[in-house]
Structure prediction request, 197 residues.
Amino acid sequence: MINSNNNQLAVKGFTIGGYPINGYLIFDKASREAAFIDPGGFRPEIPEFIESHNLSLKHLLITHGHWDHIEGFGQFKEAFELTSYAGESEYPDADITVGHDYRIALGEHEIRCLSTPGHTANGISYYCDGNVFTGDALFAGSVGGTHGINNTRRQIKSVIEQVFTLDDNTRIYPAHGPMSTVSTERSFNPFFFKRLT
Prediction:
């Protein structure tokens, strides 16, 4: 299934990896330029889809450096000529280190990096044209685990400041579980209503 917020940007999800995650291929329909978010595995369906839709995979985006999100990194790099991105110290093999508000061109669109630490020290979520890819920073009705109360506070603060300030209708694509929207998670995700002590 391909989701599209408008006539020009599309999102295709894949279940990949030894510990399965959601990996996402996003592409600009006009230029056919594409980016893949979270290379947690590599399946034949991915290059087949790219070829059959006449896409050019330009970017490989890593939300954070846990093994289940980078297991297929080497295979992507072997199969495609692309540039890889990750937050500082998240994955040393990435070509480019990104921080908050770093911008990546994708055809007529722009991918904006949002700093969402807590689950890891320098996790990044990626926003593009009404879609946000949160990795393990935010799930539908939950969040990724953290080590210690200070990291939990950082995670909740970063999601509130960077994700929940996006438009209500922004689609949330997490690395595990179903997609959601900003309005749904802001209103109903229980992790943002607990008192942290």
